Predict the 3D structure of the following.
Amino acid sequence: MTSILSKHILFESVEISDAALAEISLTLEMHRDFRMSVYKDKCMKRRIAIRMRSCRCNDAAAYCALLRQNDHELDLLKKALTIHVSQFFRNPAMFKKLQTAIFPYLFQKAEAAQEPLRLWSLGCAGGEEAYSLGILLREFFSGQLMHTSVEIYGADIDADTLQAAIHAEYIEDRLKEVPTAIRERYFISNGPRLQLTSEIRDMVTFHQRDIMAVETYEPCLMALCRNTLIYFNRPDQEKILLGIAHILPSGGILVLGKSETLVGDARKLFTMVCPVERIYCRL
């Protein structure tokens, strides 16, 4: 019992030096074209430690050696470093604000410009946020949808995560914030999971994109970048925000997560719309 407990404590207290982190980063960049340096070191070390424990590597040197030999572990590590867990209608108050104030404004703007209402869900993970936008539009703006084209795009760097988003099957936990009536209307039980109906799935298109190059994305009237910036270093947060500003027209809307805010020169490009829900308007 003592030896088992000691081993457990050893794995729980894994330490990753800056030198080991740099070696892992270089390995990922060389073999998977993945730049780990843009992410916060603390977050990366925590997720690497999880993979080390899974592989029963009790020090960083052993894990670095494993990565040099094992392509499968490289893929698993990249996935662990990039995957974000979400849920439908995460932060319901924000979606209520979209319903009552933001979408009516955006439809007017799109109609005046005679252009599609294009929306980006950045760092979309399993697609829950993008699909939530589709449900919201279908539920409350069916009239506007008849004469204004809407394009919902989801972007994420991880291909496997995007495939799961396209398939759109979810465990119960992802639907905790979904009202019963909406759940019954747009989800079909499929064993232990719930399948989103094609009516909503067909509203969203997913793209494998690097958020560090967001300035190359198609222009849009609203970009949601919630609970994504927190993983990046401050200079790269600013780069992402400036890229989002580039694809938003004057009057376009940016939505950040509750714990996120504008940084650097990006603060000069937006005005606050709703401080509680972190909603901004492009100047």
Q: What stands out?
A: The domain at 2-81 is CATH 1.10.155 (Chemotaxis Receptor Methyltransferase Cher; domain 1). Confidence is low (pLDDT under 50) at residues 1-12.
